[in-house]
Amino acid sequence: MLKVPNLSSGHPLLILTHRLMNNYKITVLFVIQRNKMNKKGLCPIRCRMTYQKKRKIFSTGLFINPEDWSSSKQEAKLPNAENNIINTQLSLISQKINEAFLMLQVLPNEFDVDDIYKKFMGEDVKTEITILGACDLHNEKMKKLVGIDLNQLSWSRYVESRGKVSEFIKSKYKKSDLKLEQLDLKFIKGLEYYWKTEKKLRQATIYRNMQRVKKMIQFAIDENYLQKNPFSLYKNKKYKGVIVYLTDVELKKLMNHNFTQKRLQQIKDMFIFCCYTGLAYQEMASLRTGHITVGFDGNLWINMIRQKTNEPLAIPLLPQAEVILDKYKEEGSDMVLPSISNQKFNSYLKEIAVLVGIEKKLTHHIARKTFATTVLLLNGVPMEIVSELLGHSKITVTQEHYAKVVKNKVSEEVKKLKNTLK
């Protein structure tokens, strides 16, 4: 991809050349016209684009003293206010040409240097974008926001959803891609049916993937590549599964069970630790001594950034969690808990469930749900506090998942009240 140098750091504006998927290259070169000097002794700066051995030369609207121009460095060489403005404008022109070229790369039709110029000028090049091309445009833009508005994992899921659409097109239409205008309600329902029947995806997975596809297509609509929204008549069915968590009895049963095998005992301890902290696997795996700090109340707290939302996470350490931290604390080590992959962690949990006699499919995520329900909600902790401790971006996320649990708690409290009022 073409990279525009950072002029503010004194980086020279070099001849801008880059290659993309079709192995063709575009070269952007700025030249001055010495024979067109005006009365102020300034020469016009022109831009020369070369693509597939054809050139397009156009005026930039900028003028410069020929003595200030460096052809080799492609910049105004003397540092002053006017020259700084010129360098900034040339950088913007180069960036816009790069964006125009990138846009044309994902279109199914061939294009020439004149089409690049038209796209650069904001004119219609009369070409049609493809479905996967629209996804690529969206994902390319989102990639630049990694570390700013989203994390690497969130971006990779868009790429994953794009791949699932590609598989459907190849399976259903026997083609590598389709024009964007072919994405209609029939296509969307066909995609949903394919994911259900051929790929055997769960409804929750289908919902999330369809939401990402919808966002990618909305980007194409915002860029005026598509006039009508094909999702306007489609209702994405959200799956509301039953929250699986350990009851108070099951949690205590697991805590009181000691394993002779070291690996099973470690996994049990780590699982219990997450039952009393609500840490997701990624946060548990990356937890270090530096994340454990003394809070304003004099007690130990976990302070870190939640990878999924990139938001601060602050969790007070309950006594049950502190005991496990003390057990695995090693002198001179930054590690807090033993290191193990998520796959092995969940595999060992299956063994643990059988040995303890818990008739639930244990996964690491159940520890997080147990923290929210058995440890917090069922002990009267308000929903807004639970949302904060789980690191949810919005309280509505917590409410959608745990509203039923709260209703059960309310029902129990009302029963107690009735007995009291008798």
- Return residue spans where pLDDT drops below 50 for at least 5 consecutive residues: 1-22
Superfamily (CATH H level) name of the largest domain: Intergrase catalytic core
Strand order of the largest sheet: 1-2-3-4
Number of strands: 9
> In sequence order, what are the helices and strands, one letter per element?
EEEEEEHHHHHHHHHEEEHHHHH
The portion of residues assigned to helices is: 40-55%
* Helix/strand structural class: alpha+beta
Task: Using the alpha-carbon principal axes, give the shape.
Answer: elongated
Alpha carbon gap, first and last residue: 76 Å
Biggest beta sheet attributes: 4 strands, antiparallel
* Average pLDDT level: 86
**Number of DSSP helices?**
14
CATH architecture of the largest domain: Orthogonal Bundle
CATH class wording of the largest domain: Mainly Alpha
Q: Give the total of domains.
A: 3
> What share of the residues does DSSP label as strand, in percent?
5-15%
* CATH topology title of the largest domain: hpI Integrase, Chain A
Radius of gyration, taken over Cα atoms and rounded to an integer in Å = 30 Å
Assembly form of the protein: single chain
What does this structure look like?
The chain has 422 residues and is of the alpha+beta class. The protein has three domains: 7-120, no CATH class; 131-222; 248-421, Orthogonal Bundle (hpI Integrase, Chain A). Helix content is 48%, strand content 12%. It is built from 14 helices and nine strands. Strands 1-2-3-4 form a four-stranded antiparallel β-sheet. A three-stranded antiparallel β-sheet has the order 7-8-9. Helix 3 runs antiparallel to helix 4. It is elongated and about 100 Å long. Mean pLDDT is 86; it is low at 1-22.
